[in-house]
Amino acid sequence: xxxxxxxxxxxxxxxxxxxxxxxxxxxxxIMYKDRHxxxxxxxxxxxxxxxxxxxxxxxxxxxxxAFGEPSAEACAEALRLGRQVYIGEGCWHxxxxxxxxxxxxxxxxxxVSRSEEYDNELQRPVMFGxxxxxxxxSREGGRRGNDWHAVHFHKPRVVSVDSPMPxxxxxxxxxxxAPNRRGFAIITxxxxxxxxxxxxxxxxxLPEVQGGS
Amino acid sequence: xxxxxxxxxxAAALPTHDDLVDERIVICYYVxxxxxxxxxxxxxxxxxxxxxxxxxxxxxxxLSPGRxxxxxxxxxxxxxxxxxxxGTLHWAVPRLxxxxxxxxxxxxxxxxxxxxxxxxxxxxxxxxxxxxxRPWLLAAAKAWHLPxxxxxxxxxxxxxxxxxxxxxxxxxxxxxxxxxxxxxxxxGPMYVSLWYFMAAFVWTFLTYAMGNLLPEYRVAGTSxxxxxxxxxxxxxxLFVTPLGWGLMYYFVPILLKKPIWSHGLSLVGFWGLAFxxxxxxxxxxxxxxxxxxxxxxxxxxxxxxxxxxATVVINFFGTLxxxxxxxxxxxxxxxxxTGMVFYFITCFQCALQVTLTFQxxxxxxxxVVGHAHLVMFGVFSLWLFGIMTYLFPRLLGRPWWSRSLxxxxxxxxxxxxxxxxxxxxxxxxFQGYYWASLQPWDVSTNGSQPFWITRVFAGLAMFAGxxxxxxxxxxxxxxxEATDPLPARAAGTPAA
Lengths: 213, 496
What we know:
A: 213 residues; mainly alpha; B: mainly alpha; Cytochrome C Oxidase, Chain A
């Protein structure tokens, strides 16, 4: 059995693979099978919609070209595209999307991530991330204004002097005050991250940071 | 192991090497593998330059370091490792089974198709995001609630765009058939290498299907995380590792001219890997919302597998015992055993870093990047360099043009990797403490600069090693007079 073709093919090859899949993959799928997977339309909330409207007022002509009216439907479309940009540009190689219960992360970023936060189509596949060159983004929404993000995506070091983040001028038609479709989408997506939470701490206001200078 | 060596009737009836092995396809696979390795290393270099603010192509969309970072890993897995393995399997499997592959025409079809798949993936990763905002694509994504990425998909080593995945799966199935046929036709007990190869063909197909279909189409959120972890882990453990060890079980006894030390340990190593390795995917996502009992299970089976693979390393050092001089004067053997030392370090490190205690500090840091390079370059790439160093003179029918360039290749690769590994591991510890201490984020990126700069030069050394190899190969292939022929003992003699 241990050295025969059928033993290796069926037991090691197929059997052990399926066993591990059942134990590691199927168990969470079964545990969470009754959870509803929200669509992009369903995860649009009033905070991200407010940011979306702010974008339309701040850059009216560019916004009209890209998304027309700042409706909830257009916002869902922007979230979907924004997520694609986030993946296609490799943002997820340098930014994580989960706050761990250790290493003071809940003090720096905000509440520890919960499983329910990921039950939507924008987390298929899930954007936990693999490396943190830049900070975690799962509580980034609303921390900074849309204009900050526009300038930051265009040339990160204008607003974040030592940042090793690459420049993304192709999110804009020439200058940071004219985002294109992809530019609006990625800004909306980043503003959405965490917007489902009522509050999280501002790093600059932490007592450790205030008193530590 | 080799055939036709004894003048008995049975040996006379056995097929010869020329009947069994299509040497041209081995050469073609190796050339493809080395081309993708060159591309991949340049891509890695680009990302490294970005981090230290030396990026030469700022703001050029098609040279965005984020996109090329994905080519770096994808081309290593599917361009370099897969091609180099396939080439070597075309040498090893027919010689082990005394049967040719199922079909030589199929072999060539797979070769061409596989290069198309890897190239299309690279093109998709680079060009796809540019076309991502087309209205028809947005409409399709909305209608079906599917992530329609023209570019990369959001899973490490699963970057292959969705429109290539089905083709790649067919390709993997054909690979399995092509090599399973000679294995199935062979008589008598199966040698250890064939256990690993056979299992790897099944596992690779299943793993690829699981990781490229489920998290994209079926499951979201935490469950997708569990599957994603399983996928990246299984690709290392059930595709790269068994093919790598299978080839070591094949080449080491040939080069040392003695059998493997212990058959029992070979059995323990194979079945231990087969049972424990696939159980560990979730250890990539400790402290996530994935249920804690699953995380504990993954941690425990990881520590178990490290004990099991230690037996494989022991077995190979038992085999080396008494032939230790080969480590110094036989370059392929030196590559193999250097890789095994790195493998042991990897496993020892893994058994520690998989614990929650270590994860608290090092998760998301460069420590993990160092670990990944140690495994993929320090172990498997060095093994494949060793195999190529051994086989190219046989495939080309002449000794290496320059032995010293072979030595440079070894020392720059192994030395550069060692520096990169130590450098990134240390960087990871610093980054972990910077973050935990709640200092501003810039402190961690600025504090990483010395390590990142060191990494650029370590990477350049490894790249220089590759250039040495390519120059040497070019000169050897075009038949230049050998500058310093290898002593017969080190070079071996061309296969019968």
